[in-house]
DNA sequence: GTGGAGTTGTTCAAATTCGAACTATGTGGG
DNA sequence: CCCACATAGTTCGAATTTGAACAACTCCAC
């Protein structure tokens, strides 16, 4: 409590640049997905994760963890996606409490249709701006942040 | 439309790590500010920007631009902060349409009280995890992202 | 000056998010 | 077997965010 270690100029510049850019990027991605496919970024991530999962299905909790959204937030989004026929709910064979979110064929098609535009934006506004070395640094740094944040959340 | 340049493994790893970590970090920052001061991260950023501005005041539009929030979003947050006495609205002398958001003494005190805990989290979950070189890379990269995103938003 | 185009900030409805409370189910110790 | 405790998802209310529509004002060209 004696003294706070404030951010020096370099640190402050890094934090500010990170904050501003991450918000702008998120806004732009959200905007593109909404315009092109009527999807939230969260919804897109859900479809993408399911698509990559074995059997195109994942437990709700696991999915929420992966997408980084609250349990109730995931329930809400799965409701939306189910109403649009992009996802189905299925009971979990090994645990009666559990629910499996399953990607439907329509969901897979929607993802296929939407992915190119999404990837283009991600490239244009992030990936293609980085040298291979910078890309590697970003991966390393952000993995460290993930670890630290998950540890702090216990 | 012929072919999409998909993300290769390295690129995908970078994007995934970035996405996950940035969401987790945002969540944690939000949580800390809410618990310690009853503030949103957006609200904290507003107070911080005003505090650093000459005369502790900024035009609404300028502030919205800096904090990366929509005009209506800023109106809402300034309403909240005004009700708590942390910010005041003042007419702009040079432009009758304009509104100046002004940090009050109470607002400054609130910021002073809140800043140490906030900085601690930012350090713990980001800044202190980076080497000086990584810090510099993050700043450089994210500045580039900001430029690209703002350019794309015209 | 005057008209039209652009800016500024607010209002409004809709969508999304979260945490807390709740229901139902699994699990381990006695 | 049974109870206490932990886990899985949902429901609910509150807060926040956005874009579109709107009213008021500035500014420039004529």
TrEMBL record, chains A, B:
GO biological process: response to stress
Domain of life where this protein originates: Bacteria
GO molecular function, one term: DNA-binding transcription factor activity
Keyword terms, alphabetized: DNA-binding
Xref: InterPro entries: HTH_MarR-typ, MarR/SlyA-like, WH-like_DNA-bd_sf, WH_DNA-bd_sf
Residue runs in coiled coils: none
SUPFAM superfamilies assigned to the protein according to its UniProt record, in alphabetical order: Winged helix' DNA-binding domain (SSF46785)
Domain HTH marR-type: 1-147
Protein's name according to its UniProt entry: DNA-binding MarR family transcriptional regulator
Native species: Planomonospora venezuelensis
